[in-house]
Every structure is written in structure tokens, then in C-alpha cells.
Amino acid sequence: MPLTPLVNWAQRHEDIYLRVELTDAQIIDVHVQENVLLFRAQGNGAKGQNEYEFSLEFLSPVKPEVKYKSTQRQSDAEMEIREKEEKKNKLKAVRHKEEGFVSLKTGYLFLYNLVQFLGFSWIFVNMTVRLFIFGEESLYDTFNSISDVMFFCQILASVEVLNAAFGVVKTGVVPTLIQVVGRNFILFIIFGSLEEMHHQPVVFFVFYLWSGIEIFRYPFYMLGCCNTEWENLTWLRYTIWIPLYPLGVLAEAVAVIQSIPIFNESKLFSIPLPKAIGTSINFSYVLYVYLVLMAMGLFINSRHLYKQRKKRFRTKKRKSN
Ligand SMILES: CCCCCCCCCCCCC[C@@H](O)CC(=O)SCCNC(=O)CCNC(=O)[C@H](O)C(C)(C)COP(=O)(O)OP(=O)(O)OC[C@H]1O[C@@H](n2cnc3c(N)ncnc32)[C@H](O)[C@@H]1OP(=O)(O)O
């Protein structure tokens, strides 16, 4: 004749724990049918070695997932419950920390993108307005009127290399490094160090092409920080580089070529050689090498941007299907 064992009940959130007081329990059968739990086992209970069973009807339906463990002593089961609770609490604390980090990162990225957006918008609008007001004349005065803000934005853009390197954003370090180093070389070495370049119209084209993409790229990132997307903006961010990038590299190459005779004449940045060999290595040789690097940079980054474009529009298509 089956007997009823002593059963202890505990409930934590959505989990129910039952402790059945049987020692040396064998042939244990526990399962749930609809909202009834059925237990049957042989073991040593309150009435000695016997077959024990019970059924427990729940008020509401329960998931039919039953896990059981035969333990040595009563305290083992209690420790198990406590350990589970501690694990859950630890998990909660980790999740809390992660959420805090994510919101800090998002806030930082949003602010960074906002500052860059404002800077490049100022450059783009200012140049457009000046072009309308002063016409061709404005092409010769771009450096003096715009360079301060461009210096600020491009120095700040170096942060993007760190963002990529430390995994703050999911992007490759190499394309970002090529982009930032490439632009800063033109801005600081070619334009910044040669006064003769300040009044060249090429400055206008370089600055206009650079800001032409950034007024779309940074607001696209800002929306991304808010988990939002505007289809037209996404399309512009991943499409407008197709004409702008080669044109940008072309304008930069023109600037480098224009600067070569100036460097040759001024001997600026020329590398002195030991007296035995005589003379010095002119900086123009570095610029010839740089022109080759530019072609490589154009290839690497166009391929990268093409991949990013394909990835973006492929995932979008899949999402809409
Ligand atoms: C190693 C030594 C170097 C030596 C140099 C030698 C020569 C170099 C020659 C270089 C020639 C440069 C020419 C250039 O100056 C000409 C021009 O720029 S012309 C104007 C047109 N230019 C462009 O279109 C390029 C604009 N720039 C870029 O697109 C980026 O800088 C680039 C690194 C090229 C690509 O960007 P990225 O890899 O980041 O791609 P995604 O935008 O798709 O972003 C990937 C994911 O990361 C998230 N992300 C990225 N940045 C941010 C951010 N600031 N805030 C928030 N989120 C960000 C983005 O949302 C993507 O995430 P998800 O995929 O989840 O959406």
C-alpha cells in the first residue's frame, strides 16, 4: 500500500521547489500532467522502507518541465536553492553593469557624432553660401575661412581609430586608420605647412568633398545610437561615397602634385644625409611614395565601403522579406 511522504514546498519567482523527505530513494518517477504533479518512489521515509507517492494539483497551469535531484541530506537541497538564488542575483548585477556601460557608450557616441555633424555642417553650409555670394573668388579663400573648424573636426576624428581599436564600434581599424591618417596628412602637411597652398582652389574641392559625405554619415550614426533609421539617409550614407571617394582621392592627389615643386624649392621636411654622402633627401620623394599609398588606400577603402554597403542592404532586404 503506497504511503504519502513528507513534502516541503518553496517558491522563488517562477520556480517551485519541492523537497520530498525520503532517504535512499529509488525508482523515482516524477512528471506533470496538465496542472497535476505526480510523484512515486521507493525509499526510506517516515514509515520506514516503503513505496511512497503523492499528487499535487496546482491552481494554474504549469510548464511540464520537472527536474529532480536525489540528495544526501536536507541541507543539500536548501544549499542548492540558495546557490541558485545567488547565481541569479549575480547574473542580474552583471546585466545591470552591462546596461550601464551600454548607455554610457551610446551617450558618448551620440555626443561625438553630434559635434562632428555640427562641425561638418557648418563647413558645408558656409562654403556653399560663400560660393553663392562670392562666386569663383570664394575658391581662393577657403583655407583662411574654413581651416580652423576643419582642423578641429579632423583632430577629433582621430578618436574614430581608438573607437575601432577598442571595439567601441563594430568596424575595422585599418580602413579607419587609412581614412584618418590620409586626411590629416593632406590637411596638416600639404595645406597646413605650405602657405603657398592656402589660396589654391584645390582646398575648396577637398574640403567640399570631405564634408559632403560627413553631413550624412554622422546623422546616420546618431540615429543608430537611438536605434532608429531613416531609409533615405541610410541610402545616402552607403551610396554617396561612390562618386565622392574617387573624386576626393583625385582632389587630394592634385593637391599633393601641386605641393611637390613647393617642397622642392623650400627644402621643407627634407631629410639631411651624412656629410660623406652629401646633400639631402627631398620631401618630394616621400610624396611620390604617398601617391602610390593613396591609390592603395582608395582601393582598400572602396572595397571596404562596398562590403559595408552590400552587408547593409542585404540585411535590410532579409528583414523586409
Ligand atoms: C595605415 C597607415 C595609413 C597610411 C595612409 C596612406 C594613404 C591613405 C590614402 C587615403 C585616401 C583617403 C581619401 C579620403 O580622404 C577621401 C574622402 O574622404 S572623399 C569623401 C568621401 N569619403 C567617404 O565616403 C568616406 C567617409 N568615411 C567613412 O566612411 C569611414 O571613415 C570608413 C572607415 C571609411 C568606413 O566607415 P565604417 O567602417 O565605420 O563603416 P560603417 O559606417 O558601416 O560603420 C560600421 C559599424 O560601426 C558603427 N559605427 C561606426 N562609427 C560609428 C560612430 N561614430 N557612432 C556610432 N556607430 C558607429 C556603424 O553604425 C556600423 O554599425 P552597424 O553595422 O551595427 O550599423
TrEMBL record:
Domain CS residues, every copy: 2-95
Cellular compartments annotated: Endoplasmic reticulum membrane
Gene3D superfamilies (alphabetical): 2.60.40.790
Domain of life from the UniProt record: Eukaryota
Recorded topology in the membrane: Multi-pass membrane protein
Keywords: Coiled coil, Endoplasmic reticulum, Fatty acid biosynthesis, Fatty acid metabolism, Lipid biosynthesis, Lipid metabolism, Lyase, Membrane, Transmembrane, Transmembrane helix
Keyword Glycoprotein applies: no
Catalytic reactions on record: (3R)-hydroxyhexadecanoyl-CoA = (2E)-hexadecenoyl-CoA + H2O; a very-long-chain (3R)-3-hydroxyacyl-CoA = a very-long-chain (2E)-enoyl-CoA + H2O
Keyword Membrane appears in the UniProt entry: yes
InterPro entries: CS_dom, HSP20-like_chaperone, Tyr_Pase-like_PTPLA
Stated family: Belongs to the very long-chain fatty acids dehydratase HACD family.
Alphabetical list of PANTHER family matching this protein: VERY-LONG-CHAIN (3R)-3-HYDROXYACYL-COA DEHYDRATASE (PTHR11035), VERY-LONG-CHAIN (3R)-3-HYDROXYACYL-COA DEHYDRATASE 3 (PTHR11035:SF20)
Function noted in UniProt: Catalyzes the third of the four reactions of the long-chain fatty acids elongation cycle. This endoplasmic reticulum-bound enzymatic process, allows the addition of two carbons to the chain of long- and very long-chain fatty acids/VLCFAs per cycle. This enzyme catalyzes the dehydration of the 3-hydroxyacyl-CoA intermediate into trans-2,3-enoyl-CoA, within each cycle of fatty acid elongation. Thereby, it participates to the production of VLCFAs of different chain lengths that are involved in multiple biological processes as precursors of membrane lipids and lipid mediators.
Protein name per UniProt: Very-long-chain (3R)-3-hydroxyacyl-CoA dehydratase
Native organism: Pleuronectes platessa
